[in-house]
């Protein structure tokens, strides 16, 4: 939620900051802005709308120049998305300029206090309050910018990643972090700051990721100094991480949208996720983060999974896998609910937190709560170095690569891949799986990339189905067992990118209410692949057909029973039920993608959404 980027060095900052904003736009696209400083004049340009609109405005009106620049792409929290509320924001004197990702919760009392002291505000944002608080501290305490930022941040409650500069200090940007991510790229006599490393990967492979409650003074000609905000302690030798990203990973690579590229990447990234960790021929699963803690899982009374959105759906799939294979009871919780309950957690519980971004505020808060209550917390994250990956006791990275389309696709299937490997590894140690079943599952998992590849070949047929149903007002998605969460995920994908109302249900629940919705206008997507419940699902299809609903069924290749009943079928390769979510998700992703494209929606940046939800 909100992307921030900054540059200081010898180069022209404008193209670097603008390009950085384009790469961070997945974090929010309500408005965008940029401020440049050449040591004499600060130039600021901002606008409601996307970075392309900012670019058009900037290039028409002002020649933006300077070797210091900061930029922001906004997901609105305080104040409607308009030009005035866009970042960057000036302080009253015009000396300080700030960009901010996060929320200052006590901004209104600080604002009143500042107003009493004569400060005026042009925007409705909490950020403008923060920059003026910094200015007031600087004046009152007669301190430099870095110190003023530190004192001010000790007075605020909330979350932030900020970058701020002072007109009187053209060689310096001050940054700070609590709750929202902040990376500092270290170049050759130049520095970059950003919400993630993508804005600077062509310039440097070295980055410092600030921890919560840390700040840094980024000054030309000097090493980056990182301090603890609370007690001013200098962080000795902050860890400089070597980045593994490359440009190709964050470009569309010939696809029309990132989402389509990411759907098609799934055979490769699922393979990347188990490569070197699953050795099917030798009967080995080796997950670095798990080996040291295997006893915790083996002896666990219960596993609690916390996550949000699509990651929560992956957690639901994991519930089936862990209970089936490792015989450990599992509870899957919305992180946002878990954090505000008074959950009962014992030392024998293990918590698994799942998050693509590793920054989701609710998941992070759930982790902190679980840790406070003494639980061992294991993370399944995609973004290396993200806050959640650092806050958890141990964990496993999915290797999905950067997921830029706001609607999650490859993150889901790689999360399931990791969770399946975990369940198998734990089951093996616990003795809840026979050696032959264990080996069989390993071999089957090793074949999944080929089956996903095959499922992707159904794309043309799915385009035809999308044409028929693109104007439907509602959709139902039904699945049973392992494929109930797949139904939820299919419905979520459709709503978020096409804005068509869709609901996912366990197929048998239909008769307890949703069946009332079924008429000849209602498309019902049913996952009816080979499983223990196949016959039951066939009965559910009969019930829909009897009420004239339109049936789109995902079936196993060669299925004849459902073919005769359904209006449309999508065939997928035969896969064991426990792994079938990895395959059955593919046609549902493609269906929502094609419908959204046909409806001319912005597939990669759906309205009101942002990729990384760093507010509650
Ligand atoms: C759906 C989607 C969201 C995220 C959710 C959690 O397509 O992208 O529902 O899954 O916001 O995000 P992470 O996994 O980053 O914690």
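Q: What amino acid sequence fits the structure above?
A:
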């Amino acid at each position: 939620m909100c992307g921030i980027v900054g540059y200081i060095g010898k180069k022209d900052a404008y193209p670097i900051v603008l390009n950085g904003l384009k790469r961070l736009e997945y974090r929010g696209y309500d408005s965008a802005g940029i401020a440049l400083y050449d040591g004499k004049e600060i130039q600021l340009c901002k606008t409601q709308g996307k970075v392309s609109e900012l670019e058009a405005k900037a290039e028409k009106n002002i020649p933006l120049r300077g070797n210091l620049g900061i930029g922001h792409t906004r997901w609105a929290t305080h104040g409607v998305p308009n030009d005035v509320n866009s970042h960057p924001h000036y302080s009253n004197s015009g000396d300080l300029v700030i960009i901010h990702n996060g929320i200052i919760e006590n901004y209104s009392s600080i604002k009143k206090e500042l107003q009493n002291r004569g400060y005026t505000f042009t925007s409705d944002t909490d950020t403008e309050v923060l920059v003026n608080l910094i200015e007031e501290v600087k004046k009152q305490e007669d301190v430099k910018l870095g110190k003023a930022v530190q004192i001010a941040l000790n007075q605020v409650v909330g979350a932030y990643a900020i970058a701020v500069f002072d007109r009187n200090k053209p060689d310096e940007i001050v940054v700070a972090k609590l709750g929202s991510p902040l990376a500092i790229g270290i170049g050759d006599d130049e520095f970059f700051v950003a919400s993630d490393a993508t804005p600077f990967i062509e310039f440097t492979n070295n980055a410092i990721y600030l921890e919560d409650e840390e700040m840094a003074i980024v000054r030309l000609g000097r090493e980056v100094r990182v301090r603890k905000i609370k007690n001013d302690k200098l962080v000795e030798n902050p860890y400089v991480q070597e980045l593994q990203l490359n440009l190709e990973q964050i470009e569309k690579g010939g696809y029309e949208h990132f989402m389509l590229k990411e759907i098609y990447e799934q055979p490769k990234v699922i393979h990347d996720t188990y490569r070197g960790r699953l050795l099917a021929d030798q009967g080995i699963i080796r997950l670095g983060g798990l080996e040291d803690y295997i006893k915790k899982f083996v002896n666990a009374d219960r596993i609690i999974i916390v996550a949000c959105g699509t990651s929560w759906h992956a957690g639901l799939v994991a519930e089936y896998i862990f209970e089936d294979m490792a015989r450990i009871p599992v509870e899957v919780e919305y992180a946002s609910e878990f954090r505000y309950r008074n959950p009962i957690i014992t030392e024998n519980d293990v918590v698994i937190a799942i998050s693509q971004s590793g920054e989701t505020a609710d998941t992070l808060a759930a982790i902190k709560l679980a840790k406070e209550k003494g639980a061992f917390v294991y993370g399944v994250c995609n973004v290396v170095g993200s806050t959640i990956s650092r806050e958890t006791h141990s964990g496993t990275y999915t290797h999905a690569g950067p997921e830029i389309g706001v609607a999650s696709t490859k993150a889901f299937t790689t999360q399931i891949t990791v969770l399946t490997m975990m369940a198998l590894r734990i089951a093996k140690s616990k003795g809840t799986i026979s050696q032959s079943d264990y080996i069989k599952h390993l071999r089957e998992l090793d074949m999944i990339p080929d089956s996903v590849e095959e499922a992707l070949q159904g794309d043309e047929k799915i385009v035809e189905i999308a044409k028929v149903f693109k104007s439907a007002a509602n959709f139902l998605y039904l699945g049973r067992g392992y494929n109930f969460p797949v139904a939820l995920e299919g419905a979520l994908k459709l709503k978020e990118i096409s804005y068509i109302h869709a609901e996912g249900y366990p197929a048998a629940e239909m008769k307890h209410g949703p069946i009332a919705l079924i008429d000849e206008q209602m498309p019902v997507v049913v996952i009816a692949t080979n499983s223990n419940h196949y016959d039951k699902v066939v009965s559910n299809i009969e019930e829909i057909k009897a009420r004239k609903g339109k049936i789109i069924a995902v079936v196993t290749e060669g299925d004849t029973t459902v073919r005769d009943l359904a209006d449309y079928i999508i065939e997928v390769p035969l896969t064991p039920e426990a792994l079938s979510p990895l395959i059955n998700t593919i046609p549902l992703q493609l269906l929502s993608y094609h419908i959204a494209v046909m409806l001319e929606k912005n597939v990669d940046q759906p309205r009101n959404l942002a990729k990384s939800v760093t507010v509650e």
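Q: And what stands out in the fold?
A: The longest strand covers residues 96-104.
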